[in-house]
Amino acid sequence: xxxxxxxDARRTVYxxxxxxxxxxxxxxxxxxxxxxxxxxxxxxxxxxxxxxxNTCAIREHAETRVIGRLGELKRHMKAGTxxxxxxxxxxxxxPRLLDQARHVSLVIGPDGYRxxxxxxxxxxxxxxxxxTDFDLEEHYQDVLPIRGxxxxxxxxxxxxxxxxxxxxxxxxxxxxxxSRDLGDVVxxxxxxxxxxxxxxxxxxxxxxxxxxGGHDFADLLRAVGAVDGIKRLRFTSPHPNDFSDRVIAAxxxxxxVCEHVHLPMQSGSSRTLxxxxxxxxxxxxxxCVARLRAAIPGLALTTDVIVGFPGETDDEFAETIxxxxxxxxxxxxxxxxxxxxxxxxxxxxxxxxxxxxxASARLDQLITTVRGGSRVRNLGRLGxxxxxxxERTAKRGGHLMARTRDFKTxxxxxxxxxxxxxxxxxxxxxxxxxxxxxxxxSRAALxxxx
Length: 450
Ligand code: SF4
Fold this sequence. Notes:
Strand order of the largest sheet: 2-1-3-4-5-6
CATH superfamily of the largest domain: Methylthiotransferase, N-terminal domain
Number of helices: 13
CATH architecture of the largest domain: 3-Layer(aba) Sandwich
Strand content: 15-25%
Bound molecules: iron/sulfur cluster
Structural class: alpha/beta
Helix content: 25-40%
Number of domains: 4
Radius of gyration: 23 Å
């Protein structure tokens, strides 16, 4: 660690984060690295000594937005401010970004954050750098993250991905899969619990394929679930093919593991899945759902679905709709396919392209199906009692936002409760997607998991 400089005022850094939770977690690591080097977090870009934009490359829209934002942020730069772009878009575009945005001095991919303080010093001396080498040993294990959330902690346990789904840029931007040492993960979880955080979410691109030093994801769940003070344990995102019987048994057997799995499906058609190179069929996905549900009563499932993938016929799309109805997802992230430069899907014959108006109509139908199903199920849940963890103040005045173990959002009256509190609520109303709840007991009265 570098010593804190003995200067009058500490330098400030503002980090703006786009994209997935892995990026949120990486921003916490970047802030940890820079804090150890003497920087202080700035709440806004105005006047910050360093501005970092941590980017996502998953779809073109995300990148266009970042380019626009970089232009806006230029207005907030004072003399000497260093502007850097990090994350997946930085990895994908590398030095091209330096040419595109002359006010950007640093372009740093996800494995280069340890060098941030030195690179910033170099930029002050006029060196513009693009750092995009993969480092297969890099897990930032000795970096103390500065967390933005005081109720739950995102713990990276795996970086990169060895699957090669044909629509996905992640293997290019984050490199091959590698898992972090189990003891190291447990140490971080223990430190987190000592700070009073009771929920952890294990993060990885295909988190349940975690494997290192003879340990698999089942071992990791058991080890993390045994840490004193951890009452809720979640993970995201798993791959359906990596739910071994051992992993499912650990999920069922570890009390802290919550009854919710985000299980990306992408399509309900085996033919589409094959072109996506998802490596499972519709039937295998259904089998995975059945095995999870048999082992974990009350399991809630959410998913990701892409419509308009090249070659998707009306029949294939109808299979996606029927899968969504049959499985009964609580919610879904739904996307219209967008081709990413550098992915195999861009090399598919152009006659397979699904016209935009067709893809848009399918997206609308899918969203209506997901919302309709969850509305009916949620109306049927009114009157149920659930343990919730209060996460934060709600946008609706006088209310707090809390979550059930199976990931439902419940708004409760503030009534003296605070983020981090557990209580039991009765579900009293629903908008169709979120609930309102009335407290029926306080934390002290609850038998807690873990
Ligand atoms: S499993 Fe597929 S979709 Fe997920 S990160 Fe890897 S390549 Fe991308």
